[in-house]
Design a protein that fits this description.
Layout (H helix, E strand, L loop, with lengths): L8 E3 L4 H10 L3 E3 L5 H10 L3 E4 L13 E3 L5 H11 L20 E3 L1 H4 L5 H6 L3 E3 L6 E3 L2 H13 L3
Parallel strand pairs: 1-2, 1-3, 3-4
Antiparallel strand pairs: 5-6, 6-7
Helix pairs in contact: 1-3
The chain binds zinc ion (ZN).
Length: 157
C-alpha cells in the first residue's frame, strides 16, 4: 500500500517557500542552502528524496535520476506542479510537520501551551502541537482556514 508520506523531497535554495508548503502538506522535505550540487545529488540518492530544483545546470549533472524541474515562479503554482506531475494524493495528515525544520509535530497539552502562548490564544484554542527541535508551538490560528482552502484547491482535478 502506498502511503502519503512515502515520497520525500529535497529542495534547492531557490525553493524555500515550496519546501515549507510541502511540509504543511505533511511531506518530509529537506531544504538545503549553500551546499554544492554534487552534495545535494548525493543526499537525494542516499535518502531517496526527489530533488526539486530550478537549476538547469543541476539537472544535467551525472547520476541524477529522481528529480523534478520546477518551471513556475510563484509558490502555489510550483506546488500545483509537484502535486500534478507526481500525482500526489490529498494528504490525510496536513500540518503534521514543523514548517521551520521539517520535524514531525507532537501533541502538546493545553496546560503546557498556555504557559507560553499569548492569553487570547489560550482562551480561544484547545489543540496545540509542538516541535521538539525548534521549540515552536503550533495552533490553528487565523492562517489555518486560509491554508486549508489553498490545500483543497490543489487537489481539485
Ligand atoms: Zn521545528
Amino acid at each position: 500500500m502506498i502511503s502519503v508520506n512515502i515520497m520525500k523531497f529535497i529542495a534547492d535554495e531557490m525553493l524555500g517557500r515550496l519546501a515549507k508548503w510541502l511540509r504543511i502538506l505533511g511531506y518530509d522535505t529537506v531544504f538545503v542552502k549553500n551546499i554544492r550540487d554534487a552534495e545535494i545529488i548525493r543526499r537525494s540518492i542516499i535518502e531517496r528524496r526527489i530533488l526539486l530544483t530550478r537549476d538547469t545546470l543541476m539537472i544535467k549533472r551525472k547520476g541524477l535520476k529522481n528529480f523534478l524541474f520546477i518551471s513556475h515562479d510563484h509558490t502555489i503554482d510550483q506546488l500545483k506542479q509537484v502535486v500534478n506531475e507526481l500525482r500526489l494524493p490529498q494528504p490525510d495528515n496536513p500540518f503534521s510537520r514543523c514548517v521551520v525544520c521539517n520535524t514531525p509535530i507532537t501533541t502538546y497539552s493545553k496546560e503546557d501551551a498556555c504557559r507560553t502562548v499569548p492569553e487570547y490564544v489560550c482562551n480561544t484554542q484547545d489543540v496545540f502541537g509542538y516541535c521538539q527541535e525548534c521549540k515552536k508551538i503550533y495552533w490553528k490560528g487565523t492562517h489555518y482556514a486560509k491554508m486549508l482552502k489553498t490545500i483543497e484547491g490543489l487537489f481539485i482535478r
